[in-house]
Every structure is written in C-alpha cells, then in structure tokens.
TrEMBL record:
Protein source organism: Pseudorhodoplanes sinuspersici
Pfam families with a match to the protein in the record: CP_ATPgrasp_2
InterPro entries: ATP-dep_Glu-Cys_Ligase-2, CP_ATPgrasp_2, UCP005522
The protein's name: Uncharacterized protein
Amino acid sequence: MPVAFDEMSGVDGQIRPAYQQLSAWLSEVRPDVLDYRRREAELLFRRIGITFAVYGEADAQERLIPFDVIPRILSGPEWRTLQRGLEQRVKAINAYIKDIYGKRECMRAGVVPEDLVFQNPAFRPEMNGQKVPHDIYVHIAGIDVVRVDADTFYVLEDNARTPSGVSYMLENREIMLRLFPELFSRHRVAPVENYPDELLATLQSVAPNGAPTEPNAVLLTPGVFNSAYYEHSFLADKIGIELVEGRDLFVKGEMVYMRTTQGPKRVDVIYRRIDDDFLDPLAFRPDSALGVPGLMAAYQAGNVTLANAVGTGVADDKAVYSYMPDIVKFFLGEEPILKNVPTWRCREEEHLTYVLDNIEQLVVKEVHGSGGYGMLIGPTSDKATINVFRSKLKATPKNFIAQPTLALSTCPTYVDAGVAPRHVDLRPFVLTGRDKIRIVPGGLTRVAMKAGSLVVNSSQGGGTKDTWVLDG
C-alpha cells in the first residue's frame, strides 16, 4: 500500500501552515491533560445521551461513538475548493434524478446504461413523470470525501437518501468549545452552529407553491428504536420543528395534517428519516406501521414536499457512482472539480477479469452496501476471505464494484498510546433549497481508531473528530 499523506506533517515532515498552531499546542500540553479531557468528553456525551445503536448487538443502546479530542483542520482555500466541488456534484445529482424520472436523455445518450437504472432496487416507478416542488430531489446530501495528497480530494460515496451524522458534527463542536477554549483562541474557526437555521431555511424554501408564508415543517422519524433516533430528536429540537411518527400524521383530501391538542394542523414539508419502503403502506410495503397511509397521494398531488424526495436512492449506489464524472459533464457541461476514485464495474467482463486477477490489492464493495459491511479490503484480508469474495464475484458480478486501496490521509489522533496518525474521511452536508445551496464549513470527520485500519464507519469501531475550517 502507498504511504498515507499526513495532513499535519505533509510529505516532507514540515508542519503545514494550517496545523502550526495546533502542533505548537500539542507540544505544550501534557498527555494527562488530553486523557482527562477525553474522559470528560465521554462523560458529557453519555450525559447528553448520544448513543449509536448497531442492530443485532445486545449492548447497542449503550454504545458511544469514540470521540477524538484533537481537531482536524482545513485551510480556507482548501475548503473553498471542496465547497465548489460539492455544489457542482449535488447539482449534477439533482439533474440526473430529474432526468431518469422524466425525459431520460442521459440513457438515450448512452451516459448511463438503462438496466442500471430500471433494475436498481431504489428505482421507484411511482416517480415516473412526477413533478416535485421546485425540481429539487436531494435537499440534504452527505458527500463522503477522502484525501490522498495536499491537493487531491476524492468523492468516496454520495449519500442522497437520508444521510446521518450531522448531530455529531454539531455536538463535537460544542464539546470542543467547552473543553478547549484556549485552543480555539489560537485559531479563527468558521462556525457550524448555524446549520439548524440553514436547514430550516432550506426546508421552508422548498414548500409547495401555495403554502403559507411560514410553511409548517416536521421531522418524521421511525421512532425510538431506530439507530439514529437521537439525531432525529436532536435536530427537531435545534430546528424548532415537531418530531413526529407516522401515527401523528394523517391525510385528508390529499393534504397532510398533524394531530395536535388544538386540532389538525396542515403540514407543508416533511423532513423524513424513514426509507421509501416504509413511507406509505398504501403505496409501498402494506405491512409498514411507520408511515402515513395516503402520503404518496398527497405528494403526487403536489401538496407536500418530502425531503429528500422518493426514489433518490437511484443516484447513490456504488455502480451509479462510477458514472458520476460523465453525469457531471453531461448535465452541467463542466469537468468534475472533485475526482472519483477509479472504479472497476464487475458487471463488465473486462473489469471483472481484472478484479479477479488482482483481488488481493483491491477493495471490493457491494453495490448496495453501506456502513462498512459487505466489503473486502484485499491487502488486509486472509486467503479464506478473499476466496469467499472471489466466489461471490463469479456468481453475481453485477452486485460488486472494485477500487484501488487508497492510502487515506491521516490526522493526529489521541489514542491509548498517545498522539498518533489515524486515517480519516469527511462527510460535509450540502443543503439545496429553492434559492441557493448552503454548506456549513466543515462536516463530520470520521476516524479509524485502530492503527492501520482504513474503515472509519462507526458501526465498525470508527470514531469522530471536530472539523475546523480556518477563516481567511
């Protein structure tokens, strides 16, 4: 594997400008102080109640995501490049989804194969020809970005359904402000605290035509047993909107209403954290007790906005990801600002042959996988595991893609042995409203807490860091 780029030390061991103050501070602070503040942060997170459930585990309700007390830092120019690339990417994703449920010009032009769309489990025939308010499908996107050198950021994954993690971005900042005021005083850090205001402004801006001047938005959750329920309740509280379950809403005359002690109240925008399948038992799974009967009828009548729209999953599986550079060029007429990781599509015979011949050096991923599951990291896997994946590839090649094993950049991280480099990625959150695209500076940095590990997902033992974007 190639040597990873160290975001603090660079390739020559010289401290990079954005990290100079942090490096000086680390040389001054005693290890026992870092350890004490790490334990204090854990206590605060436990008191607040931030837990992450992993389905199928007995201790799921008690798990805390490890929090690293050393921030990741990006310079202003680095962030501005990222921001431009993220805006471009999300514009292209929205244009692509509108097209495949509409005129399908990209398929006629051969940009994306038809079978990749129509055989995609996330494709929703109910959305064919369906107009959505203001032609916006992905109102909240989480774009996973990795870095391999001083100048190059790659998009690793597009999350266009119900991306999670923003509560950790906000709580991480709050904890850091409380525990490390002296470190903040050495930097001009761009704020992220305005994210709830930006999200509310985005949601209200995409209300259907004819909605009140101040549209009523709600956050629809599957309920307390969902792994991300903490985030749902946290965001509803921060935004200042009602947190509702399916049973709190009903449809009458193709309008959605919320049950309140003062009587029914019309709902204009639903920030839904429920998957498509469970949204409406009359349209999708009839056994769903989580959704709202008749919701799709109200949606198709144009009387309510769903954020994100139904059917956005067609844009974020890993096979479609491999076509994103072409999608950007086709819809925007621009070269992609953010690169894709080179990707072999195992559905293509030539690609499959290459992957089978080089599987020990590659990362193999399930097209519809997530959370770090269903993935092979060739260089760190034993022969038995590799042979299992080899058999899977031969049996159902269309279910897999493969990529080179990237040396994800590293950041200084406080671990049991002291300060050491650990691999990181970044999930910025992109909000698309009627009037503009909003991105708070930074995002959720996820960190692989185990030495040498490239898997940053919280479900696989990864942790999180505060992400500082320097003003200027």
